[in-house]
Amino acid sequence: MPFQEKLEKMLPVIREVPLDEVKKHRIPPKFYAMEATNLYYLALQDKEKLLEDHLDWNHAEMMYSLSLALRELCSNWLVIYFDRAEDRIAWEESLEEANKLFDDVYGYLRFHFRHDQSTINQLRQIADGNRHADTIQDFNDLAVVARNLTPRLEELNFDFYKLDKLTKYAYDLNILYAKARRSNMPRTEQRELRDKAYHLLRIHTREVIDHGNYTFRDDEKHAANYAIHYLPSTRRKPEDVQEDIEESAEELEKDLVTGTKFKVTRVE
Question: Which of 52, 112, 134, 194 has the fewest Cβ atoms surrounding its Cβ within 10 A?
């Protein structure tokens, strides 16, 4: 596959780009890469005239190679972010359901054992955590505390199936949490590579465009072909959706790194 081959060839050059030089641009990188590929074939047809005006042809070759490499990186990144979006949806849905069940059981125990100081102290200790890892452990801890109160709960006709569900939520969310944390680094690296490749591509493409505009300055129609033709639309495009996915995924990543909990309503 030419895209993968170009990416492997260009990776050493892409990695050398200082991250602090990379900037965000309004044109989606995948669109820019496709335009740059088309621009290369135009320049190839005009190669003789461009060389007469002293275009360093290495810029054109680099533009072509980087455009294919960037298209491959964009495809990889899209797959990564759709995976991450699914992780986030699963995390939020499971956590919301688990929190509702937690609040139900927690409030039930707080009320029925309000005169049992030992139980109240245990419940308060469970409520003290404020990180994702604490939240996940809380589901299991609450189930353990409740099972130790089995005789009294049986008298109250408590639904013990709720405790089984809490334990299962703790197990399932722990797996999802670990999965998300493990995948942070590769995903971060993939984005950096994409952005670095885009930065390099813009540099070489700009050289080709400038030379093309100069070489064909007396042929306005032909010179106009030496450009990245991008017309933003008011309609939402796939890249807009991808950007939303990206932002949502970044929020999840930030939460996982900082340990911020989703909002939970608990009876104190």
Answer: 52
